[in-house]
Known about the structure:
2 domains
Amino acid sequence: METIKAFLMGEESWLFLAEVLLRSVIGFVTVILAMKVTGKRGVRQLSLFEIVIILTLGSAAGDIAFYKEVGILPAVLTILSIVTLYRLVTFILLKSKAIGKLIEGEPVTIIENGRFTASIIKDENISFDEFYMEMRQVGIEHLGQVRVAVLEVNGTVSIFRNEGKEVRPGLNILPDIIKNTYKIIPAKGLYSCIHCGLTIPHEQNDVPKCSDCCHTTWGIASKRECHPDEDKNGGNDNEDN
């Protein structure tokens, strides 16, 4: 029995569970109040700096709950100090664009006129899957439907659509299609470079190299919502999307 107690409770008595419960409630309420002071409603509104603040608050609240040697007042003071620091930094950010850029970063344009921008193409550490998901959630089927897409400092993507005749053929980002990429073109039609979005016609069995970014991997392009005149730009035989 003592072995089981030691395994479950370590060196603490069973009464410590009640103390943990009380400490957890105090930590939870303190963090909720702290979040109310910051004025944030959800994760989608948080910048990287604010996520760090939330994690720090969570760590302080966890210390209240788990560590018997940590007093309630020092932990609460820690949380209040973090919130005060947050409010101070927020005030400084409003006064200094340079400091704001340093701490929170700045919005980045990732797509212009259906093509990935040069800054995104050069960043080898970026995964496009999340961008594609964000675009699909607002009804974007291919990059030619996008006039401008901006990666915001809180991680969301703001998307401005092309309309009417502005829509052009572009890389199809539907899951069942974007997963199929080609080094050798399987059939005559329009294809898009998956690295930069360049969309041009190719013949069957071509082994093309992108003239813009020099990559050699291609995906199927779509003409969905394109003006009929766009069909003359390559005569896409591989699909009618």
